[in-house]
Each structure stands twice: as C-alpha cells, then as structure tokens.
C-alpha cells in the first residue's frame, strides 16, 4: 500500500475558479427584489452577506443552515416584506454552471494535473459552500475528476472552520503533511494553522499572469522587489 505523504485541501471560488453567484445568481435575484424593495443590487447583496455572516458566527447547532443560500435569500426577502419570491438559488446555479458565468482561474486545471502526478499526494476540495451549489460548477469546468475527495458542509456535517470538518483525512492519514490552499485569510490561513496544518494563501499579482504557473515561484522574489506593495489580505469571501 502506497503511503500518502501530502494532502492538499484546496479552496474553490477565488482560488481555482469563479462560480456563478456574482455573475448570474445574484443579478437575477436582485432584478426581482429591487423593484419591490427600492433597494439597489449592492444594498441587497450587503443584506445577504450580513445574514450569511451572522449564521456563520452562530450556527446554533445547524451548520448546514449557515451556508444554505436558498434559505438565506428567503430569510432576507421576507424580512424586506417580500413573502412570495419565486426563485431557487440551486436552480440558478445549476442552469448557469457554464461559460461565461463560470471560469477557471490562473490555469488551475494545469496545476492540478501536475500535482496529481505524484501518487503519494492527495488533492481534496475544502469548501465552505454546500456540495449542491459547488459540484455543478466543478463538473461544468471539468475540475471534479482532478480531485480525490470533496469536503463540503452537506457532505461532512460540519463547517470549514470546525476541526471535525477535516476528520476524515486527519484520522485516515495522521502522519501526512496537510496543506490548506485558499484566498481568504481567516478560513484558509489562520483557522487551518490553528488546526496544525500548513497554509498557502493565493494573493493576486497581475504581473505574474503571463507566466506558466510552475515558473512563477522562481521569479516571485524579483517581482516582489518591483511591486511597491502586495495586495492587502482580504477577509473571508461570503460567497460559496
């Protein structure tokens, strides 16, 4: 039996792909709610984000409810006095999981295929979003077959910021090196490091875009000297 030496927990939106929430789902929902509430799309998204954040802060024993965007949208719309909003976030995600609403970032598919070549390594999706919303995107982009496993709240019963979320792999491969890769400081860097993992944060640097992904580390230090300041580490993205 081959020993697994490294398990990479890979974040999705903003790290390896773009999902259709900002490009299609919320524009459609906002087009229905704005005329009936007098609020702009930006104001509505702010309310959705606030509801999401309050649920994450206090999941109240129901972690799946914290990241269920159908429930979040209905809760906010009813709070605004719209009781009969006829919309399904799940249907919108499913029907828009194709170009131009979703896309691969930074040739991540090339990097993932390269990483899979080492048989001692396992690639695992680690997402705060529910599988019902995430899998259509991964399948639509052809990324799903590149992973060995999928960790999502509705598959494991926990949120990404809970240590039990990772139990399947931590218990199965206790001696492996666990590395979390993502684009948000709290969920992808600080919390995984509290669990004892290594962590890699993806910071967008436009100057590196023209290079092959596997050439970038070798020249990153030169670009650091040329760039006055790297982009700020942004807080956790509320979209799944």
Could you give the topology of this structure?
Layout: E1 6-10, E2 17-18, H1 21-37, H2 41-57, H3 63-66, H4 69-79, H5 89-95, E3 103-104, H6 108-116, E4 121-126, H7 131-140, E5 149-151, H8 153-156, H9 167-172, E6 177-182, H10 185-194, E7 198-201, H11 216-226
Parallel strand pairs: 1-4, 1-6, 4-5, 6-7
Antiparallel strand pairs: 2-3
Helix pairs in contact: 2-4, 5-7
Walkthrough of the structure:
By secondary structure, the chain is an alpha/beta fold. It folds into two domains: 6-18 and 101-226, HAD superfamily/HAD-like (Rossmann fold); 21-95. Helix content is 44%, strand content 12%. It has helices spanning 21-37, 41-57, 63-66, 69-79, 89-95, 108-116, 131-140, 153-156, 167-172, 185-194, 216-226, and strands spanning 6-10, 17-18, 103-104, 121-126, 149-151, 177-182, 198-201. It has a five-stranded parallel sheet with strand order 5-4-1-6-7, sandwiched between helices. A two-stranded antiparallel ribbon has the order 2-3. Strand 4, helix 7 (131-140) and strand 5 form a beta-alpha-beta unit. The longest helix is centred in the N-terminal third of the chain and has 17 residues, at 21-37. The radius of gyration is 19 Å and the shape is globular. The protein starts with 5 loop residues before the first strand and ends in a 14-residue tail after the last helix.
